[in-house]
Design a protein that fits this description.
Elements lengths: L4 E4 L25 H10 L3 E7 L10 H15 L5 E5 L16 H10 L7 E4 L2 H9 L4 E4 L11 E3 L2 H8 L4
Parallel strand pairs: 1-2, 1-4, 2-3, 4-5, 5-6
Helix pairs in contact: 1-5
The structure holds magnesium ion.
């Protein structure tokens, strides 16, 4: 039997987005309701996979090590709820990559590695570039709206990951 998965963008979904990049543990602020939401999804049998662009590495703002430290911190805080983190360190200013969203390569790798059933899975993001690669692969999409009436090709719009989890689990 194939696995079902909730793919998650990181910045703006798990932790508060920061225009100056989030790469210091002390600036990694977990959004309220995120850990309970992830627990509900995990208990319902979903794999939880983060797919995140980290172009600050290509730009020389921070290092791979900083990304690992933030993810280790979240693992400790959440009790290891995330199955895997895929991140793209690239940026078109230095190197083009199919992994950087809206490219779909990180999703494709995860789907192959974990034998994921797309039809039973979801992508939750806060930017259109999170939604586009998932749409391309026919993964149902949920946009966490930062501003009201955002134009999006996502199937659903919600205000938080907690609300997305309720939608996925049909509790609303
Ligand atoms: Mg984001």
């Amino acid at each position: 039997m194939k696995n079902k998965c909730v793919f998650l963008d990181r910045d703006g979904v798990i932790n508060v987005d920061n225009v100056n990049y989030t790469y210091k543990v002390e600036e990694f602020k977990i959004i309220d309701g995120v850990i309970p939401a992830l627990k509900m999804l995990k208990e319902a049998g979903y794999l939880l996979i983060i797919i995140t662009n980290q172009s600050g590495i290509a730009k020389g703002i921070y290092q791979h090590e900083d990304v690992y430290k933030c993810h280790d911190y979240f693992d400790r805080e959440s009790g290891n709820l995330i199955d895997e983190y895929f991140y793209s360190p690239y940026h078109q200013s230095t190197s083009e990559s199919l992994s950087r969203k809206p490219g779909s390569l990180m999703f494709e790798k995860a789907i192959a590695k974990y034998d994921i059933d797309i039809a039973q899975s979801w992508m939750v993001g806060d930017r259109e570039r999170d939604i586009l690669p998932a749409n391309k692969l026919n993964i149902p999409t949920i946009l966490i709206e930062e501003f009201p009436n955002t134009e999006t090709s996502a199937k659903y719009k919600v205000d938080s990951l907690y609300e997305a989890a309720e939608l996925i689990l049909k509790k609303v």
